[in-house]
Write a structure and sequence with these properties.
binds adenosine monophosphate; 6-stranded parallel β-sheet; about 400 residues; Rossmann fold; 2 domains; alpha/beta
Length: about 400
């Protein structure tokens, strides 16, 4: 990555503002039900604290308050959890910009400060320059460690970089290392596994990966549009009928590019989604009133054979309706196969594939699990991510780590 990273900065005595992704799930009592997004930002936070900054100002969004102050979307529970994780007090403010915020930071003896939810202001998602400047006015230097929002040009991800020297945190750097490696220089064979509901969400991804991958496996709901495009009867399985021509065109493009798109050959079908006891496996055509909700054993074996021959794997999208245990077998088998590999780089796109790997307790067995579903998808599609593009470039010839940085 040709961008400054947090290690390139001299942070001693500086006020450092860090964009984190603390968009954690909360239950009705506002308890955090999964604090991974906080723990994942700890390496950057702890490193900055070790550099003895004057202040470490953390900021994030939580939920979609859409420019309103919504008390249930306050970052207060995050401040409490951070205090526990860091073993030190965190000054939680009730706003994120303005003179009162500035004065509270200046008068407090605490080093770590957490600003209130950025999205309590519409100006945040509108990337309003005045709001960006107000955030920048709180600090001397900016670090972005929120990969999950790097695909959005918001005030705290893009706008602020126009006012401060801007560097990537460790989490952002790690994401770029693995996703960048897959897109730019994968060890081959490079196999991409795609699943999930819709072909339409993954058209650009397929188009871009056709230029890069050796094989593309397509399972999950999106496979049925491809199968129908090839004349296979898919019963009442999920299908985008307006994308049949596109699916055909993608299959032709793949052929021309010398990349095979491998599709499911057998499936777990049900007559009634709510009645798993009706489930059975079928190959080839599916009868009219049956719906495919997972891949079948022949397909699992076929996909596994391809997967074990790979040196780099990117997985985006489940093979079936993995949220329901009765239909999770295919996704689990593929996750376990990836987990068993040695000397292979396994990269899990965020979102549902990451949720599936977590559900099966296999997170530690993957090389990298992306923290940003949308951001990783856009990056793998070949799109530039505004939150990363906007960071300060490393000086030509590398960074000298001098006090000017
Ligand atoms: P996406 O957001 O497009 O990645 O889709 C993820 C969703 O696809 C998950 O919630 C899965 O339950 C769902 N899914 C995967 N396979 C199927 C299928 N065969 N039929 C219906 N939904 C599916």
């Amino acid at each position: 990555m040709n961008k400054l990273t947090v290690k390139d900065l001299n942070l001693k005595g500086k006020k450092v503002i860090v964009r984190c992704d603390f968009n954690v799930p909360l239950d009705e009592q506002l308890n955090i039900t999964d604090d991974r997004r906080i723990t994942e930002s700890l390496p950057t936070i702890k490193y900055i604290l070790e550099q003895k900054p004057a202040k470490l100002i953390l900021m994030s969004h939580l939920g979609r308050p859409e420019g309103q102050v919504v008390p249930a979307m306050s970052l207060k529970p995050v401040a409490a959890r951070l205090e526990k994780l860091l073993g030190q007090k965190v000054l939680m403010l009730d706003d994120c910009v303005g003179d009162k915020v500035k004065a509270s930071i200046a008068s407090s003896s605490e080093t770590v400060v957490l600003l209130e939810n950025l999205r309590f202001y519409k100006a945040e998602t509108k990337n309003d320059p005045e709001f960006s400047k107000k955030l920048a006015d709180l600090a001397d230097v900016y670090v972005n460690d929120a990969f999950g929002t790097a695909h959005r040009a918001h005030a705290s991800t893009e706008g602020i970089t126009h006012f401060l020297k801007s560097a990537a945190g460790f989490l952002l750097e790690k994401e770029m290392k693995y996703l960048g490696m897959a897109v730019e220089n994968p060890q081959r064979p490079f196999v991409v596994i795609l699943g999930g509901k819709k072909v339409s969400d993954k058209i650009m991804l397929i188009e871009n990966l056709l230029k890069k991958a050796n094989k593309i496996i397509v399972g999950g709901g999106m496979a049925y549009t491809f199968l129908k495009a090839q004349g296979i009867n898919i019963g009442k399985s999920i299908c985008e009928n307006d994308k049949l021509d596109l699916a055909k065109a993608l299959l032709d493009k793949a052929k021309a590019a010398g990349v095979t798109i491998e599709l499911s050959e057998d499936y777990l079908v049900v007559q009634d989604f709510g009645k798993p006891e009706t489930k059975k496996y079928v190959s080839g055509n599916i009868d009219n009133d049956w719906e495919a909700i997972d891949i079948g054993p022949k397909t699992i074996e076929k996909f596994k054979k391809i997967i074990v021959s790979a040196k780099t794997i990117v997985w985006n999208g489940p093979m079936g309706v993995f949220e329901n245990d009765a239909y999770a077998g295919g996704t689990k088998a593929i996750a376990e196969c990836l987990a068993s590999l040695k000397g292979v780089t396994t990269i899990i796109g965020g979102g549902d594939s990451a949720a599936a790997v977590a559900k099966f307790g296999l997170e530690d067995k993957m090389t990298h699990i992306s923290t940003g579903g949308g951001a990783s998808l856009e990056y793998l599609e070949g799109q530039a991510l505004p939150g990363i593009e906007a960071l300060t470039n490393k000086p030509a010839g590398g960074c000298c780590s001098c006090s000017c940085c």
